[in-house]
Write a structure and sequence with these properties.
Oligomer: single chain
Number of domains: 1
Strand order of the largest sheet: 1-2
Strand content: under 5%
CATH superfamily: Farnesyl Diphosphate Synthase
Largest sheet: 2 strands, antiparallel
Order of helices and strands: HHHHEEHHHHHHHH
């Protein structure tokens, strides 16, 4: 039976793995989990796993859901007054505005812990799955997402290298987790996983550049600090060609990654 990897499909996977308790913290978790996210990170993970392994394993499903839990926790904490202090998220009141700051902190903590619980229910005897789990949490920790948030709060964007480092750390890390973990659970070799990682880093930069252009009035640190919009679009086009060339080096049907490149740059229109 062919599996269509859609937002609704991923939503069902998430619902299956949520606790049954009905307290205020879980309400806050669900509020953010189902607030209109595009689910492109779990989509990338599942599509990569399917492209490499010809199927979507239970391990891939667990990793995809855990990745969305991590992403949502990061959004909740990112919006807090002590961080970016945003009142709105996806056109709705941010979590701390809707449920209070304490509930938002706990909801983020709970989602991060739930991501651990979710992957621990997978096939831990499988070495590739183990490696994928370790990589996912490396990308969400001090060498990944947490480092990116630190750069965003305390760093400076003086040149293109600074902006690129921030983009890879804050935006690219969970895209790296998506592609590399999907490839690993699909059965990719170490060298193939490395190529997927390179693709993901460039995807992260491209995605952040378009975000910066779309949010030019809001962003305090962005690629627009060092390049003009037209130069940045040219840079995205160049990176897209590099991504597509890297996809062609791999023995898998990665048309979905090429389409993602095109859809991303079209977001500016």
């Amino acid at each position: 039976m062919k599996t269509n990897i859609t937002v609704s499909y991923i939503d069902e996977l998430i619902k299956e793995r949520l606790p049954r308790e009905r307290d205020k913290v879980l309400q806050a978790m669900e509020y953010m989990l189902f607030s209109g996210g595009k689910r492109f990170r779990p989509m990338l993970l599942l599509n990569t796993a399917k492209a490499v392994g010809k199927r979507i394993s239970d391990g891939a499903k667990n990793l995809a859901v855990a990745l969305e839990f991590i992403h949502t926790y990061s959004l909740i904490h990112d919006d807090l007054p002590c961080m970016d202090n945003d009142d709105m998220r996806r056109g709705k009141r941010s979590c701390h505005m809707q449920f209070g700051e304490a509930s938002a902190v706990l909801a983020g903590d709970a989602l991060l812990n739930l991501s651990f619980e979710t992957v621990l229910k997978g096939p831990l005897s499988n070495k590739s799955y183990q490696t994928a789990c370790v990589y996912m949490f490396k990308m969400s920790g001090i060498e990944g997402l947490v480092h990116g948030q630190s750069l965003d709060l305390f760093g400076e964007t003086k040149n293109i290298d600074d902006a690129t480092e921030l983009a890879i750390a804050k935006t690219g890390t969970l895209i790296r987790a998506a592609l590399v973990c999907g490839a690993l659970v699909g059965g990719a070799s170490e060298e193939e996983a490395r190529i997927f990682d390179e693709i993901a880093c460039k995807l992260g930069v491209c995605y952040q550049i378009v975000d910066d252009i779309l949010d030019s009035k809001k962003c305090e640190k962005s690629f627009l600090d060092v390049y003009s919009e037209s130069d940045l679009i040219d840079h995205v086009k160049e990176l897209n060609e590099e991504i597509k060339a890297a996809c062609d080096k791999l023995p898998y049907d990665l048309e979905f990654l090429k389409e993602f490149c095109d859809q991303n740059i079209a977001r500016r229109r």
